[in-house]
Amino acid sequence: MDTLLQLMESYGYVAMFLAMVAENANIPIPSEVILGFAGFLISQHIFTFWTTFIVACLAGVVGSVISYWLGSYGGRPLLLKYGKYIFFNEKKFNMAESMFNKYGGAAVLICRCLPGVRTFISFPAGVARYSFGRFLIYTVIGTIPWTLLLVWAGSILGSHWRDLIQYNHIFLIVIAVICAIAAAIFLWRRRSKAHQS
Fold first, then answer.
1. Residue 38 resides in a domain
2. pLDDT tens track for 140-192
3. What is the DSSP string of 48-75?
4. In sequence order, what are the residues at sequence separation of 6 or more whose Cβ sits closer than 8 angstroms to the Cβ of residue 130?
5. Is 109 exposed, middle or buried (0-12, 13-18, 19+ CB in 10 A)?
6. Contact 126, 72 (CB under 8 A)
7. Which one of 69, 121, 143, 182 is separated from 59 by 20 to 30 angstroms, measured CA to CA?
């Protein structure tokens, strides 16, 4: 991780973008490390808040799309052959797949807000050949609150940004609850409009 942080210091947003793409494409790089350190760089006036937020969101969407297409074209055989190298095992896939099978496209939005499965939901969505347009919309909506909260927390903590790692279980629960509430409100309003029409 120290190498990644050095790369972010040296290459700025480009390094952060590539790291976030990798994380959302199921490479095990904790987003709280990437965005927590980015928040620290904001506090040092090296990064700016909104540029960091936008770049991180774009990277999250790009990484998710890569995972979606890998699922769409490679399917379960690809997972079984190469998943072990990135700690994406069949158990994690089955967990994400069961969520997707139960809730459909809404699972993409919900899971983007849940630690542990947020980066894995894109692959089963691709395997199921779920509508790419809807997948993209749900991914964007689910990526925004998670990214915003992590960047904000890192910028507030400043030099203490590593607290995000030490106390990440508490912080991630808070993020998950906030994001889940936001997702529930969005889905409820969407269904209400559908019933009215």
1. yes
2. 988 888 889 889 988 988 888 777 766 666 666 666 676 667 667 766 776 77
3. -HHHHHHHHHHHHHHHHHHHHHHHHHHH
4. 100, 104, 105, 108
5. buried
6. yes
7. 182
Is 172 among the domain residues? no
The answer to whether the CB of 64 falls within 8 A of the CB of 109 is: no
Which secondary-structure segment (H or E) carries 8? helix 2-11
**How many structural domains comprise the chain?**
1
Within a domain: residue 108?
yes
Q: In angstroms, rounded to a whole number, what is the distance separating the alpha carbons of residues 5 and 8?
A: 5
Q: Does residue 195 belong to any structural domain of this protein?
A: no
Task: Give the position of tokens 């069949």.
Answer: 90
Helix, coil or strand: residue 89: coil
d(CA 94, CA 79): 11
Straight-line distance from the first to the last Cα atom of the chain, in angstroms, rounded to the nearest whole number = 51
Closest CA to 67 of 130, 14, 145, 141: 130
Q: What's at 12, amino acid-wise?
A: G
CB 156 within 8 A of CB 39: yes
With 0.70 as the threshold, say if the pTM is over it: yes
42 pLDDT tier (thresholds 50, 70, 90):
very high
